[in-house]
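**Fold in tokens:**
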Amino acid sequence: MLFLSVSKENSADWVYRIFDRRTVSVKSKNEQVRKVAVVDLLTNVPFGIEVPKNVSWEAVEVGKEYFASLKVYTARNIAGVPPDFVAFFEVLDVDQSMEDFIKAYWLYPKLIRFELVEVESL
């Protein structure tokens, strides 16, 4: 089961990394913090996505599959990250794939943020 954090972070604490479109299945929603738990259908890995106020909350339904446009951010403060992974967060000109960010989310969920831009029903 994937838990959705109730904490909000200051946007200045984050670095925009990539934009990508993924096919996802929505597993749960937390309206209080505007986050949804999804499973990426390509990798079969679950992760959480923030739903900003400019995206309709009602447009995302639990149990449905969507083609989701996402922005990925990484935290500026990476204190505590082992030296082997520092480059993943600090080097911005290296092309990291969306799969890399989804997998890294499981190791460092507080250091990676996914934001929904739009969804299309499948």
In short: The chain has a mean pLDDT of 89. The two ends are 24 Å apart (CA to CA). The first strand starts at residue 14 and ends at 30.
